[in-house]
Design goal:
Layout: H1 2-6, H2 14-36, H3 41-54, H4 61-69
GO biological process, one term: mitochondrial electron transport, ubiquinol to cytochrome c
Protein name: Cytochrome b
Pfam families: Cytochrome_B
Length: 74
């Protein structure tokens, strides 16, 4: 909230803001992969649920899910 209030995303800190967003997405991806790594029953259903959330993205969501799954099912 404070960063938005003070306008920390504006110049000259735009690059810092973009890099922070990239790091956030990368950490979320690493967390997902770490959770799915054991590939037990809970990991299987977590992977199914999380990747199906991605399918809500209009036009390209289903293609992204199939790419992440490596086929049509987990």
């Amino acid at each position: 909230g404070r960063g938005m209030y003070y306008g920390s995303y504006r110049a000259p800190r735009t690059l810092v803001w973009v890099i922070g967003c990239i790091i956030l997405v990368a950490m979320m991806g690493i967390g997902f992969l770490g959770y799915v790594l054991p590939y037990g029953q809970m990991s299987l259903w977590a992977a199914t649920v999380i990747t199906n959330l991605i399918s809500a993205i209009p036009w390209i969501g289903q293609d992204i899910v199939e790419f992440v799954w490596g086929g049509f099912s987990v």
